[in-house]
């Protein structure tokens, strides 16, 4: 391929980075990537059968969820009014977490992603508890996603990212070595977009949402896997299309946990579990679980 020189891409990316996203439309950003960047690179990972994806919801006002549709992706995309890291308004995506070397329990990542208090900068002032419901879906057939691993600041400190980065870099070195500088520059830019931490508006996600949707037009791509910003990139998040959930995942377990938060510490305590998902996962049968003794929880925080 006659890929443009690095300086051409740098010029276009600098122009894109200088734009005020709050004044931009989705189509403007999407068309800019498509027409100006043109050669948009992706790194692809395979999610293998037998692995699990977990997704959590907060039980606001102690609400109880009794069917799969209540804890899965939003069925009515018209109610989605804002951009997410991998979606535009009116687009439903299944956001979940998978195990990683640094955070082997995806529910910890889910908890950090969905609860505002765990994202607070003033963690020393926090003392609260809340309920979350966690669904655990098993992957029943392999499928592919793009993966975000070219974040240079994490390559040396996060084993999962380093391993994936080295594999993807080798692929490009073997296949298009003459354009490796351009490819690495662009992948680093898009990885940084997915790692944005200080979000002032949902439009800060415009570029990562457009990048994801460009990838979804590629035959066989079902979503994106990326480091969890809310766990300082130690955990792994995944966002996949509703069709992927319906065709490649199967709900196997549902549990409820009470999450205790005090200053810098978090304690996740089993609360209830579903022993029968019911017909077509539509009628959960809950039972109580014996949680940790209060003295143990008090000792943990002490």
Provide tags for this entry.
302 residues, alpha+beta, five-stranded antiparallel β-sheet
Could you explain the architecture of this structure?
It is a single chain. The protein is of the alpha+beta class and 302 residues long. The chain is 33% helix and 25% strand. The chain is built from ten helices and ten strands. A five-stranded mixed sheet has the order 1-5-6-7-3. It has a five-stranded antiparallel sheet with strand order 2-4-8-9-10. It is globular. It starts with 5 loop residues before the first helix and ends with a helix.
Topology, element by element:
Layout: H1 6-17, H2 26-37, E1 44-47, E2 52-58, H3 68-71, E3 94-98, H4 106-114, E4 127-139, E5 143-147, H5 152-155, H6 159-175, H7 180-194, H8 206-216, E6 221-227, E7 236-240, H9 242-248, E8 249-262, E9 265-276, E10 285-288, H10 294-301
Parallel strand pairs: 5-6
Antiparallel strand pairs: 1-5, 2-4, 3-7, 4-8, 6-7, 8-9, 9-10
Helix pairs in contact: 1-2, 1-7, 2-8
Number of helices: 10
Report Rg: 20 Å
- Overall mean pLDDT: 93
Read across the widest sheet, the strand sequence of neighbours is 1-5-6-7-3
- The dominant shape is globular
Query: Helical percent range?
Result: 25-40%
Show unreliable segments: none
